[in-house]
Amino acid sequence: MQNTLMEDRQLSSTPKFSAKYVPFNADSNSTESYHLDEIIYRSTSGGLLDVQHDMEALKKFDGKYWRSLFDSRAGKNTWPYGSGVWSKKEWVLPEIHCVDIVSTFEGNSNLFWARRFGKQVVGMNDLWVKNCGVSHTGSFKDLGMTVLVSQVNRLRRLNKPVVAVGCASTGDTSAALSAYCAMAGIPCIVFLPANKISMAQLVQPIANGAFVLSMDTDFDGCMQLIREVTAELPIYLANSMNSLRLEGQKTAAIEILQQFDWQVPDWVIVPGGNLGNIYAFYKGFHMCKELGLVDKIPRLVCAQAANANPLYLYFKSGWKDYKAVKAKTTFASAIQIGDPVSIDRAAYALMNSNGIVEEATEEELMDASAQADSMGMFTCPHTGVALAALIKLRKKGVIAPNDKTVVVSTAHGLKFTQSKTDYHSKQIADMACRYANSPVQVKADLKSVMEALSNFLQQHSKS
Ligand SMILES: *Cc1c(COP(=O)(O)O)cnc(C)c1O
Asked: Is residue 444 part of a domain?
């Protein structure tokens, strides 16, 4: 507590940083803007909003100042700067009081050298994985939810009409939202399609004490209903249109630079569905360049499942022809989205980073994930999409052997045990499951065990 007050006082003696909502990619003579304490999700024209920081105030300090400030806070325990998100508070929500922040000290996820996969699968020596799924609720969604729920906490203290926070989601969003709401004691409402989600997806909001409404429709039906409900009732909408979440997510990009001692990688590959995260990465990198922490930004790759690939098709048309698609089922369930909310944000991010879009079939993503797992990486299917994209871009010669490349892992593999189990027992229709590793059934006597082992050891010595 004492620490918090001290930090607050220190900050208030430095120049005032601020941020506001503006229409996303507004033309330069637009004057539309909103205070962050307003409850608003869309611009007057119905478009997306963006959180815009007072860059002139931030620019009063040079890149060296910011680098050493961020470095001095990383991984420490001082509230709230020990969080990977709040260690960049001045760039995230500069005006929120530290006491309003709701945090699990998310972020600071490991960035590891994928040495064996790099060498054996893609012939690379500088391949890295940013492990964003090693997080409180098992996905990068925590980085955004700490910001959204902290701001809601502030709004409630300011007596704004927010009785609860709600979202429609089948998986990671509801897990993260319900956890942060539970931390702060804010009522959380989750709309879920009945019988369409697994126990693993259901268990987090239930355990976190959310009010879970299960209804006889699909995800889009739930989304439609929660939008109508939040228009009528003082329930704050936490869906992915909300631009606050991206402010937290962008810190993963800043963290990558920080972990490389402010060296800029050549490529960063991000799996994309609703397409907020790819923009968040762009925003984080771009801010570091604009404020002089680094002198360039990496080329971004957005990786999509071929079964839900509207951004890929848009890219292939030379950014001329966008059409929503009907998303087909994919093992990468968090990116099974045919009409992404943040399509314009993603196109902007890719065009401004000399970026590209690649896609992966179900077999490609499951094989890539299984291969990575067999090298100790235990990936989720979305990370499989990013790795499959990497494999294809290496084959095409787009990414070179010595390019410093980061694959963003978005969720923990343990959230997706069912698809892994199906793969390894070859229970997936029309899939060879080339890297399946099934357990060997053996009688419980020494002779049988020795036989099985001698087979195994012989194979091993040959390979
Ligand atoms: C939400 C999510 C994504 C997709 O992020 P977008 O911002 O919607 O593109 C990818 N992977 C996982 C595990 C997710 O939970």
From this structure: no
**CATH number, residue 267:** 3.40.50.1100
Q: What pLDDT is stored for residue 240 in this prediction?
A: 82
Nearest to 328 by CA among 369, 362, 277: 362
Per-residue pLDDT, averaged over 410-426, amounts to: 95
Q: Is residue 56 part of a domain?
A: yes
Pairing between β-strand 34-35 and β-strand 19-23 as defined by DSSP bridges: antiparallel
Residue 173: pLDDT over 60:
yes
Residue at 301 is within a domain: yes
Domain presence at residue 9: yes
Is 0.85 surpassed by the pTM of this model?
yes
Tell me the pLDDT tens digit for each residue of 220-275.
Answer: 788 889 989 988 999 999 988 899 999 999 999 999 999 999 999 999 999 999 99
Distance 260 CA to ligand 1 centre (A): 24
Answer yes or no: are the C-beta atoms of 50 and 21 closer than 8 Å: yes
Residue to probe by mutation, ligand 1, list 333, 369, 382, most atoms within 8 Å of CB: 382
Which regions of 322-443 does DSSP assign to beta strands (E)?
356-360, 405-409
Domains of the chain: total: 1
User: Can you give the residue range of the structural domain that contains 103?
Assistant: 1-138+249-417
Q: Which residue has the CA at smallest separation from atom 11 of ligand 1?
A: 410
Rounded to the nearest angstrom, the distance between the alpha carbon of 83 and the centre of ligand 1 is: 21
